[in-house]
């Protein structure tokens, strides 16, 4: 009998087949490029949780290899293969199938009753391989099935002595019990983990298009990528749910851990395969956004969580380490949702208790946001009230806050607070309104303020110190009066964003009269309300608004509240920008940034807000690369800001991006930034959103017109004409300017001039010279269209008079060829009087803009990358090439170290490399770096 054939007949033949998918696949060239490096390493380890495409990646890569180079031996492992003899029988048979009879003697020895020790057989295997010239690739798929230590030790022996004729690839869900640290030190292992296997945005787009036959907008594709965290099987399961859907944009609604297919997969493939102890730990801790040992111990009222977390990480159970010390973790978002769904349906009663323990732990560790949220989930209303009231001062000082998602959750919960709790605690009412300032409707906040004001007014009316809450210490009459001042002051803040600015100013006076002289933080907030009212209301006095904003920042600095001071300095800078004071704006923003970047201290993320307006100044000076770089950095800081104003900061960040991208003629990027603004605005307070929107409406209309969407712009103008006009006088003024852009696009200059006249008068009265320049340029274009050249040049000359001292350039260039022609005409006329250096600079800027556009198009075509590197990534790459550390890069670019790490990760992904050396080498080959760098 032919023993090898007999042995093979006793084995499951399908375990030797390279899996072939029946579905379409996407090309993942960056990963196959990594696998192309595997022949250089004895062992390649592909380790990631279920569904990250390990097997698919390997099978696709193998099919791309040249025939018989190398000879590929594939084994799909199962639990029964833990028997060492059976394991090595499968391995040797797989090798023998690639070169028949070569390994037959070893198989016969292994199967004999007097089989020698496995290490002897492996030594013979090594010697046999060395004697030949053929190269073999052994792939062991699903190695997580192997738990037998003897298999691990014998495989480690083989790897340690592996000849060049054999290379091994392990695909596993769990880190194998092999001497990986030694292999890493010797550089004998190539590793691919979940971070590399996650689908990039480009790969998500390709999957949706090629496999699901769906094309989505860029921002939706990015959201799908973020939501699934690049989990390949998550995308495939979404495909199942989308088959019968008619609206692909509703795809985002399907991405949750309790979506049927995802829930079934994670429950059956992951959760139920775990021991009962592990299942209980996963379910109990699923209520937590982030995990650390002491927190998990507190929630479960037991010890040993550190070992469990380490085991979960080693087992690749959809857990992500958040720091290099392996102290903080989180679950994959969809896995966490699955766990919470199972917890709610299987173990309802313990859930409030789990939240109670979590709330106590967070409060003890001064993480009040999470403490409040968990107390709300436990419906411990009195505890919620105590926690919120305790954070009233940090709320006013802008030194405490939460993410957009958390704020929306808080709003949903706080609306459920029992009436008897709310009705007895004025400080709770004020703090709740402050906390939800950016996301709650004004009507809700006004109702809380009504309750607080009524309680305090009634108590003060009795002229006796009175306890205003049965659960908090009694307030003196002075304390109640001070609290009433804060309540009225915050009401003034809400009113300042509405039409009646005079009412807001009156409330500010009432509030200031009630406040204690040393309550600097509240005074700063109230003075800020005056600043907003003077700027946007019928008061129309921007210079007074600037002076008041500076006063508010001074109050905050006197109180030692840097975060609040930086934010108020940002507001002042926004107003000086409107006033056309570019140099003063730059100086003011630089001062605010320096306040938040003191030597030896962590950079305060609040500097992001003033940095936005520094980016605006750079744009006006036509330093567009610097403007984009500063703006992107500013947004990164705004995203890190823990403040009740952080969402407002982000809104202005997207406004800035729209302006910069339009000036750079990057229309898709401008549209994306506009969509991000609108998306954020949908979850925010209506009045705050409309207040911010008046700063973007002109640029939204300009984008429509540049993109040839005149019909869209015309429809907006028609709706504006027939609808009742709401909003502040400032907002209505900006709508008129946007309207004029449409009239000029439709060649209706006479109507444009008529609508501009009252707008010009109001802007001039308010001394908003930045807007006056803008309006004068539109008048000049309208007169040019009317063929009234003298009037056009006269009006343009007035704009030049205002713009020249501050160095405006981009404002002119943005108006295009018609403005360039006018500038040539003005220079021809004015040269009779002498040199025209400013006009020369403006005209030269038009020529530079055309050259830059040509160069950018050529550069984009020349860069052979699936997704080009951004300007900031190119800067980081340049510093990487110089051997600069992440911390040094952060200091050089004035960004956070985590931001540097994210940029480096994106660079590696786009270049298809794993380390700095290969990144620099690949970048030089692509022409992204010079050889001297």
The largest β sheet comes out as: 5 strands, parallel
How are strands sequenced across the largest beta sheet?
Answer: 2-3-4-1-5
Basic shape: globular
Instruction: Please give the radius of gyration in angstroms.
Output: 33 Å
Whole-number mean pLDDT: 85
Terminal Cα separation, in Å?
A: 67 Å
Q: What amount of the residues lies in strands?
A: under 5%
Secondary structure: number of strands = 7
Query: Can you say what the CATH homologous superfamily of the domain at 3-197 is?
Result: P-loop containing nucleotide triphosphate hydrolases
Portion in helices: 55-70%
Number of helices: 50
Low-confidence stretches: 464-472
Q: Indicate the CATH topology of the domain at 3-197.
A: Rossmann fold
CATH architecture of the domain at 3-197: 3-Layer(aba) Sandwich
Structural class: mainly alpha
CATH class of the domain at 3-197: Alpha Beta
Describe the structure.
With 933 residues, the chain is mainly alpha-helical. Among the domains are: 3-197, Rossmann fold (3-Layer(aba) Sandwich), CATH 3.40.50; 201-255, no CATH class; 561-688, Alpha Horseshoe (Serine Threonine Protein Phosphatase 5, Tetratricopeptide repeat); 689-859, Tetratricopeptide repeat domain (Serine Threonine Protein Phosphatase 5, Tetratricopeptide repeat, Alpha Horseshoe), CATH 1.25.40; 863-925, Arc Repressor Mutant, subunit A, CATH 1.10.10. It is 65% helix and 4% strand. The protein is built from 50 helices and seven strands. The strands form two sheets. Strands 2-3-4-1-5 form a five-stranded parallel β-sheet. Strands 6-7 form a two-stranded antiparallel ribbon. Strand 3 (136-141), helix 7 (149-160) and strand 4 form a beta-alpha-beta unit.
């Amino acid at each position: 009998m032919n023993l090898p054939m007999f042995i093979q007949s006793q084995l499951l033949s399908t375990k030797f087949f390279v899996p072939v998918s029946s579905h379409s696949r996407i090309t993942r060239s960056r990963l196959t490029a990594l696998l192309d490096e595997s022949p250089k390493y004895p062992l390649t380890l592909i380790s990631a949780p279920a569904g990250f495409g390990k097997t698919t990646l390997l099978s696709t890569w193998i099919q791309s290899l040249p025939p018989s180079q190398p000879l590929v031996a594939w084994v799909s492992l199962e639990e029964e293969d833990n028997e060492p003899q059976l394991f090595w029988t499968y391995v040797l048979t797989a090798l023998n199938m690639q070169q028949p009879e070569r390994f037959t003697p070893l198989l016969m020895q292994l199967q004999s009753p007097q089989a020698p020790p496995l290490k002897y057989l492996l030594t013979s295997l090594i010697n046999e391989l060395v004697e030949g010239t053929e190269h073999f690739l052994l792939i062991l798929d699903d190695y997580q099935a192997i738990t037998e230590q003897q298999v691990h030790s014998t495989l480690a022996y083989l790897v340690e002595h592996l000849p060049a004729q054999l290379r091994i690839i392990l695909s596993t869900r769990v880190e194998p019990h092999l001497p990986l640290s030694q292999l890493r030190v010797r550089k004998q292992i190539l590793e691919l983990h979940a971070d590399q296997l996650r689908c990039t945005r480009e790969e998500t787009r390709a999957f949706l298009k090629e496999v699901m036959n769906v094309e989505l907008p860029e921002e939706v594709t990015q959201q799908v990528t973020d939501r699934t965290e690049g989990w390949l099987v998550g995308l495939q399961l979404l495909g199942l749910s989308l088959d019968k859907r008619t609206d692909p944009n509703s795809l985002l609604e399907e991405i949750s851990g309790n979506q049927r297919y995802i829930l079934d997969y994670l429950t059956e493939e992951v959760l139920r395969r775990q021991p009962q102890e592990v299942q209980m730990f996963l379910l109990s801790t699923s209520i937590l956004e982030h995990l650390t040992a002491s927190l998990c111990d507190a929630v479960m009222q037991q010890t040993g969580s550190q070992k469990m977390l380490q085991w979960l990480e080693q087992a690749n159970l959809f857990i992500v380490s958040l720091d290099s010390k392996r102290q903080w973790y989180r679950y994959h978002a969809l896995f966490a949702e699955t766990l919470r769904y199972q917890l709610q349906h299987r173990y309802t009663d313990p859930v409030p208790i789990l939240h109670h323990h979590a709330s106590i732990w967070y409060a003890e560790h001064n993480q009040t946001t999470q403490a409040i949220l968990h107390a709300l989930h436990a419906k411990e209303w009195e505890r919620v009230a105590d926690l919120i009231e305790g954070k009233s001062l940090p709320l006013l000082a802008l030194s405490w806050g939460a993410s957009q998602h958390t704020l929306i959750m808080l709003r949903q919960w706080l609306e459920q607070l029992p009436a008897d709790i709310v009705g007895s605690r004025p400080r709770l009412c004020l703090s709740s309104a402050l906390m939800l300032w950016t996301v709650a409707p004004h009507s809700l906040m006004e109702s809380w303020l009504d309750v607080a004001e009524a309680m305090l007014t009634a108590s003060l009316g009795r002229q006796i110190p009175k306890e205003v809450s049965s659960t908090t210490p009694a307030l003196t009459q002075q304390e109640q009066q001070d609290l009433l001042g804060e309540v009225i002051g915050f009401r003034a803040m809400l009113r300042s964003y509405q039409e009646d600015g005079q009412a807001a100013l009156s409330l500010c006076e009432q509030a200031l009269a009630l406040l204690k002289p040393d309550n600097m933080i509240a005074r700063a907030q109230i003075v800020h309300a005056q600043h907003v009212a003077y700027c946007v209301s019928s008061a129309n006095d921007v210079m007074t608004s600037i002076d008041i904003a500076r006063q508010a920042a001074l109050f905050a600095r006197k109180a030692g509240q840097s975060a609040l001071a930086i934010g108020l300095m940002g507001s002042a800078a926004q107003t000086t920008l409107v006033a056309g004071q570019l140099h003063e704006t730059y100086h003011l923003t630089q001062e605010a940034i320096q306040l938040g970047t003191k030597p030896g201290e962590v950079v305060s993320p609040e500097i992001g807000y003033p940095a936005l307006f520094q980016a605006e100044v750079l744009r006006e000076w036509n330093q567009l690369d610097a403007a984009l770089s500063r703006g992107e950095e500013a947004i990164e800081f705004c995203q890190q800001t823990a403040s009740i104003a952080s969402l407002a900061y982000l809104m202005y960040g997207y406004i800035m991006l729209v302006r910069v991208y339009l000036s750079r003629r990057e229309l898709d990027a401008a549209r994306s930034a506009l969509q991000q603004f609108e998306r954020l605005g949908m979850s925010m307070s209506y009045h705050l959103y409309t207040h911010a929107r008046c700063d973007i409406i002109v640029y939204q209309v300009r984008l429509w017109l540049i993109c040839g969407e005149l019909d869209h712009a015309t429809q907006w103008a028609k709706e504006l004409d027939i609808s009742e006009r709401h909003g502040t006088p400032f907002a209505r003024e900006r709508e008129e300017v946007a309207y004029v852009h449409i009239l000029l696009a439709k060649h209706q200059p006479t109507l444009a001039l008529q609508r501009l006249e009252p707008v010009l008068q109001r802007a001039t009265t308010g001394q908003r010279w930045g807007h006056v320049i803008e309006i004068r340029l539109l008048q000049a274009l309208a007169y040019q269209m009317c063929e009234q050249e003298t009037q056009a040049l006269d009006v343009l000359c007035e704009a030049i008079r205002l713009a020249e001292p501050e160095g405006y350039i981009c404002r002119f260039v943005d108006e295009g060829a018609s403005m360039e022609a006018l500038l040539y005409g003005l220079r021809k006329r004015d040269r009779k009087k002498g040199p025209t250096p400013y006009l020369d600079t403006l005209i030269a800027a038009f020529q530079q803009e055309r050259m830059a556009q040509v160069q950018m198009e050529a550069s984009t075509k020349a860069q052979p990358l699936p997704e080009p590197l951004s300007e900031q990534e190119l800067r980081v790459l340049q510093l990487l090439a110089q051997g600069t550390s992440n911390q040094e890069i952060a200091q050089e670019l004035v960004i956070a170290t985590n931001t540097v790490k994210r940029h480096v990760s994106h660079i590696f992904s786009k270049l298809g490399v794993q380390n700095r050396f290969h990144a620099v080498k690949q970048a030089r080959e692509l022409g992204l770096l010079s050889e001297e760098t």
